[in-house]
Structure formats: C-alpha cells, structure tokens
Amino acid sequence: STTPFRDRLYEPRNVADVLGVRYVLSGTIQTSGMRTRLMAELTEAELGHVIWSERFDGSLADIFELQDRLSQEMAKRVVPFVRQLELG
Predict the structure, then answer these.
(1) If pLDDT is split at 50, 70 and 90, which confidence band does 25 have?
(2) DSSP assignment string, 8-30
(3) Does the CA dihedral 14-2-10-53 come out positive or negative?
C-alpha cells in the first residue's frame, strides 16, 4: 500500500488521507560496506506528531535480526501508546 510513496518526499498527513489511516510508519535503510542502519518513525498523521522513532545499527549480514529487533521494539513501545490514545 505504500509503494506509491517510495522515493519521493511526502507529508504523513497526505499519506494518511490517501490510505485512510491515522498513523504512518516510515523508515530508511542505509548501508556502508557491511554495516547497516535501520531507522523507523511512527507519526500520528492528523497533528503530525512523531509518536516513536528508533534506529538500529548492525551488520548487513544480520539484516534479518535487525528487522526482528525493529518489530519487537515497535510492539513493545508503540502498541501501548497507540492503545492509550485510541481508548483514552
């Protein structure tokens, strides 16, 4: 669903409007030699507030481990925050 937004500048609010969502997760991956950095940011689209952001550094050989760490951190930190916003 996010492929049309790849490789161009966008505002989270615009993406949220197009996709019909309240939160937008964006990220980047950078590599240098065998090193890699994953960066992720979750934005509450209506107000444009960043709810969560994190970066993960590691070896390119361990890219799947970095992806797993990213997923685990999102579940641990983001889900309770969004739940509080939605139910509170």
Answers:
(1) confident
(2) S---HHHHHHHHT-SEEEEEEEE
(3) positive
